[in-house]
Task: structure prediction
Amino acid sequence: MPPAGLAILIGAGPNTGTGIARILSHPSHGNLALAILARFPDTLSSTAANLARTAPGSVIETFPSDTSPKSLSETFVAIRAHKSFDGLKLRAAVYNVKHAQVKNFMTETHHEFVDSLTTYVGGAMAFAQESLKLLFEHHGEQGLAETKGEKKGTIIFTGTLGAMRSNARFASYGAGRAGVRQLSQSLGKEFSEKGVHVVHVIANGGIVDDTEGEDVTIGKKIKAESVGKTYLWLIGQEPDLWTSELDIRPALEKY
Result:
């Protein structure tokens, strides 16, 4: 069965990213051709090898990229040109970047603080902008009223509880997570009428790429594949009901 469309995932690490990638790409689930992005080639190779075993028949291509505008722009050019994605329209873009900085505020430099925001919030902005360009390139820029409700695609930001409240020594982390949450809200309000669904997901709790361990069975941790299934559900939502923010946690997580 040919892929049903194209998805782009940045942040293809061994737990959350791998679980999302497996569900989105697996022919029995999302059946989306998938471009996975990560900073380190070793991470990409490991994730690709895992998916080759656990999602046979999937179309998956890897692209080394950080969150800088230059790197992301070059990567999206490469995605456009890749033969595996010929004729496929973008349906989903997932920003799943893991970025944490814990420092005593009085020893944190201005450069460190701003660099953290540039890497994470600036990266989210650049990724979203490149994703929107590709969505409009593939689907046009007409609004929902003109296309009779045609959804162009979904942009998902994986966030954490830090987007809602911060803690001691988490100044730059909290500012960054809150910044991406506000970015998501702004994009949703600007582009919903164009048929672009934008979601911020607050993932509160440990996430593991494990389907049978005791921690996931009793609700102590989240299965990475469960995150993928939730994202696939979001991608499938029609314009009459769009989730703009979602709080996910395992049953035993305190809140």
User: Anything to note?
Assistant: The radius of gyration is 18 Å.
